[in-house]
């Protein structure tokens, strides 16, 4: 890898800092073909490939030698918000998304900084005189002492395509950076952040189009949540798909008589997957808002909330949808990752939401193939064959009436993505075991109001978990039978990574990362990081040496805040510590 | 005999002192959100602190987002009515901001709480809101 160092001093930089920048000289443009079939040495998409397996084909680090792993380098990421990084690696460079829109490029072999993009101090756009004003920066212009929190400022994944890096911001914009220099090339705002809109999940690239879903859609307003397709070169918005059906449109009658302004939710806060053969993108939506039917004023299905949606990335036309939980009423998201696996020649999608029901869908038609309830939840009955969901007696909340439910509104499953291993034909699923006494309350049905609705909440441990909160649940695919479980006191708090070395890598809230034998669950190695394991671990190879990068992070919403605080109060973690920690075998 | 009178006097003084303390504590326990228990200046300081440390989650209009509850109006009162200001102060000062719990000064938490009270139309007064959960433990949160 060749890099060139040069200095940029502008009036703006003089105000804040004088900073040295380098650029990547040897950068191969990332093509669609590379994204679809990346070399094992690289990590080009947030979950490795557009199929979102979270699987590395590298086997230099394996069950026999993983006990010798050593720290090679680490890097502190900004502590201005929750760290949930999904790094990418290309041409020996690691691109790290940090809180508040910061992106950094590091030499992936030794951790040297090459360039960094910081909203507010990036002086110009690729040699032009165009500067970014504080007004345009919005929340990003807050003082560095401001905390982005669990909402705005989170930046999970970024995308690589051509010679650019793409991100989605806390200010409801899609951004393109020059991957060689980190300089801003274009920025396209898709919605008004003043109405609550923001991104936490970044784009994916599908057939030459950036596909991104927005969140922050819980307020009552005159428009609704959406996915967009953008031209990667220009930033032009090519199409927009509304995730909430408007009155008078197909599905519009599933919200009862509510006018559009009182139809909320359908957020997207986890990036999608892509099947190039079918040219379909698979995206998830979250539940309707407010969470409880009685509060939002309709017991209708509320399309297209809590659904998996298949879209043509070039037109935004919906090929099919599958609504997992029609008329959902407990904050049980189904918006998470879509894992694309072919089973006996049948193209399938595997998904799991907060209820820990594993859904297998036909990704050509959207037809349900199988629904596997792992048996932890107490809210619904699900037909394993046709996927029909019915609420158990007394489990539809009324305003002010306490119900006892498992899981809590935090869910068993969250954005900590599951990983698939083709070696074991199993899914490795980070789970937190928990329940809740929940009392749902009212909201004001006025423009600007709404929201998720208040919940008086008392968390308690799951009946069957023996005080354990954390579980790595391993399900055989496609049978859905439990292959093994790894349970422990602290919540499992990172996404899972599987490798051809027969390993599964996952971390917990108590700062440990583990390497487990993917076949047996035996713990083979562990280390401890700066703060909670959080984000998306990856693996890559440079000059014949395999590395495993393990992100750590603070924040992470109620899964990482309220649950361990209430249910495992003897555990603690530092207030700061967002970081990347990179391990490899000794070279001697 | 000469000792009895002073003893009676002493007892009377003790009873008087107990009465005064009781009246005093009754006065405190009778304090309500309608009594002007924070100052306008304190709430103004709290507004600035809120903008810097809280608004990115709970929004500038205090209505919250998916992960952060509303701190205003019907939704706020649904969660907190019947509890005490001390409980709210304790939660704020030990759990907030979620990225860095307890990282603000007690005075800052009190100012932010004053701003929340102002935003919910509870009146300001002449005395700053106390910066301690214990001192606020007897003040009920009530819309009345």
TrEMBL record, chain A:
Signal found in the keyword field: yes
Please, which domain of life does this record's source organism belong to? Bacteria
The protein's matches in InterPro entries, at most eight in alphabetical order, are given as: PQQ_b-propeller_rpt, PQQ_rpt_dom, Quinoprotein_ADH-like_sf
Domain Pyrrolo-quinoline quinone repeat, first and last residues per copy: 43-369, 486-548
Q: Which residues form the signal peptide?
A: 1-22
Keyword annotations: Oxidoreductase, Signal
Name what cofactor the protein needs.
pyrroloquinoline quinone
Among the Pfam families in the record, one is PQQ
Q: Which GO molecular function entries does the Swiss-Prot or TrEMBL record give?
A: oxidoreductase activity
Keyword Oxidoreductase on entry: yes
| SMART domains referenced in this protein's UniProt entry, alphabetically | PQQ
The similarity annotation says:
Belongs to the bacterial PQQ dehydrogenase family.
What is this protein called in UniProt?
Pyrrolo-quinoline quinone
List the source organism.
OM182 bacterium MED-G28
TrEMBL record, chain B:
Q: Where is the Cytochrome c domain?
A: 41-120
What's one Pfam family here?
Answer: Cytochrome_CBB3
| Family annotation (Gene3D superfamilies) | Cytochrome c-like domain
Q: Which InterPro entries match?
A: Cyt_c-like_dom (IPR009056), Cyt_c-like_dom_sf (IPR036909)
Gene Ontology terms for molecular function = electron transfer activity; heme binding; metal ion binding
Entry keyword Heme: yes
Q: Which SUPFAM superfamilies match?
A: Cytochrome c
Q: Which UniProt keywords apply?
A: Heme, Iron, Metal-binding
Reading the lineage from the top rank, the first entry is Bacteria
Protein name, please?
Class I cytochrome c
């Amino acid at each position: 890898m060749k890099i060139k160092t040069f200095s940029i001093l502008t009036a703006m930089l003089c105000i804040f800092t004088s900073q040295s920048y380098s650029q990547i000289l040897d950068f191969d443009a990332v093509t669609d073909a590379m994204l679809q079939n990346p070399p094992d040495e690289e990590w080009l998409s947030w979950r490795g490939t557009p199929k979102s397996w979270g699987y590395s084909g590298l086997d230099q680090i394996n069950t026999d030698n993983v006990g010798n792993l050593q720290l090679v380098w680490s890097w502190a990421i900004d502590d201005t918000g929750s760290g949930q990084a999904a790094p990418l690696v290309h041409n020996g460079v690691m691109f790290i998304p940090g809180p508040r829109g910061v992106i950094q490029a590091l030499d992936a072999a030794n951790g040297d900084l090459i360039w960094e993009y910081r909203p507010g101090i990036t002086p110009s756009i690729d040699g032009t005189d165009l500067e970014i004003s504080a007004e345009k920066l919005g929340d990003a212009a807050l003082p560095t002492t401001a905390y982005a929190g669990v909402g705005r400022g989170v930046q999970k994944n970024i995308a690589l395509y051509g010679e650019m890096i793409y991100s989605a911001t806390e200010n409801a914009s899609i951004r393109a950076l020059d991957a060689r220099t980190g300089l801003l090339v274009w920025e396209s705002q898709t919605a008004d952040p003043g109405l609550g809109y923001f991104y936490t999940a970044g784009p994916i690239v599908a057939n030459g189009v950036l596909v991104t879903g927005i969140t922050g859609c819980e307020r009552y307003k005159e428009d609704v949540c959406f996915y967009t397709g953008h031209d990667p070169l220009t930033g032009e918005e090519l199409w927009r798909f509304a995730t909430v059906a408007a009155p008078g449109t197909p599905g519009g009658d599933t919200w009862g008589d509510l006018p559009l302004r009182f139809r909320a939710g359908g957020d997207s806060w986890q990036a999608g997957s892509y099947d190039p053969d079918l040219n379909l993108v698979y995206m998830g939506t979250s539940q309707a808002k407010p969470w409880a039917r009685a509060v939002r004023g309709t017991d209708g299905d509320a399309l297209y909330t809590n659904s998996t949606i298949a879209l043509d990335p070039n037109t935004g036309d919906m090929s099919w949808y599958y609504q997992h939980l029609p008329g959902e009423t407990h904050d049980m998201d189904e918006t998470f990752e879509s894992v694309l696996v072919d089973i006996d020649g049948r193209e399938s999608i595997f998904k799991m939401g907060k209820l820990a029901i594993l859904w297998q869908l036909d990704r050509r038609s959207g037809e349900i193939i199988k629904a596997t309830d792992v048996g932890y939840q107490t809210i619904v009955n699900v037909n394993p064959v046709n996927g029909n969901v019915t609420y158990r007696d007394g489990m539809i909340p009324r305003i002010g009436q306490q119900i006892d439910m498992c899981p809590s509104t935090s869910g068993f499953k969250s954005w900590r993505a599951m990983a698939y291993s083709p070696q074991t034909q199993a899914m490795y699923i980070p789970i937190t075991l928990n329940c809740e006494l929940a009392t749902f309350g009212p909201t004001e049905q006025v423009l600007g109001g709404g929201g998720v609705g208040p919940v008086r909440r008392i968390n308690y441990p799951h009946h069957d978990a023996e005080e354990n909160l954390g579980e790595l649940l391993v399900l055989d695919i496609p049978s859905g039978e439990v292959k093994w479980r790894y349970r422990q006191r602290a919540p499992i708090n990172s996404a899972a990574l599987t490798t051809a070395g027969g390993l599964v890598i996952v971390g917990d809230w108590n700062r440990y990362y583990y390497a487990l034998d993917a076949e047996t669950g035996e713990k083979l190695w562990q280390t401890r990081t700066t703060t909670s394991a959080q984000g998306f671990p990856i693996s890559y190879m440079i000059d014949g040496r395999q590395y495993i990068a393990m992100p750590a992070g603070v924040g992470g919403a109620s899964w990482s805040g309220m649950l361990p605080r209430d249910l495992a109060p003897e555990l603690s973690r530092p207030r700061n510590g967002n970081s990347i920690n990179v391990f490899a075998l000794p070279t001697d | 005999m000469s000792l009895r009178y002073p003893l009676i006097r002493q007892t009377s003084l003790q009873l008087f002192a107990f009465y005064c303390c009781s009246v005093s504590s009754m006065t405190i326990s009778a304090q309500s959100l309608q009594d002007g228990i924070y100052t306008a200046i304190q709430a103004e300081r709290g507004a600035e602190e809120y903008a810097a440390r809280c608004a990115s989650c709970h929004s500038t209009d205090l209505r919250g987002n998916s992960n952060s509850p509303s701190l205003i109006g019907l939704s706020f009162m649904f969660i907190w009515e019947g509890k005490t200001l001390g409980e709210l102060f304790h939660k704020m000062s030990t759990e907030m901001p979620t990225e860095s719990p307890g990282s603000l000064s007690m005075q800052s938490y009190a100012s932010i709480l004053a701003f929340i009270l102002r935003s919910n139309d509870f009146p300001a007064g002449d005395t700053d809101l106390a910066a301690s959960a214990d001192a606020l433990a007897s003040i009920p949160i009530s819309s009345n």
